[in-house]
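User: two proteins, same treatment. go.

Assistant:
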Amino acid sequence: MSFLDALENNLKSLEKQDERDPVRAAEIRKQREDDRTRALAAAPVAEQLRSGKFTVALLDHATRIGHSQRTKVQITWIDTALRLQAKERRLDLQPSPEGVTAIFSEDGSETKRRKIDLSGDPEALASEWLACHSRGQ
């Protein structure tokens, strides 16, 4: 039996132990229900983020500003969240039932967090996020 087979068997037995324990099974079921409820409540906001005019304009402004700074802006969708990354700076837009939260990070640590209005100015958000690059160069 290879190492990977043994590891897989161990993981399966641990999962079965969790399933047999009624308290743990109830906790897992409750967590799944909470996650599903949260996802359903955030779905309209997530859809607006994914297909709205704000996002299209934000991506356009971010790539334009990044290009002028000779910085490639990488765009990634992670589930319902949008991540923009330019060098060591990152902007995550995470939908929730209350709206969209923008999380600004630099060198892997969060620098600030704030709610954004999807009917607001996407160019201002892109400029705020990439402002440090223009000062640093």
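Protein 2:
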Amino acid sequence: MEIIYYLYGIICLSRSTDVHYIAFCKNPIDKMWYNYNDTNVEAVNNLENDVLDNGIPVALFYQIYII
């Protein structure tokens, strides 16, 4: 039996002085990551850099496959 973890979402606490959350989610159709920040949605070029530059990860969302 093998367990595979597939990351598809991250919620980050913003590094700004206000309490603010940012979401990073992977689109299952085009397989690209997007940054959701209030009313703005932007494609993510480098997930690791964008997450760490914009906030502190507080929740990770995984899909788990058992093979």
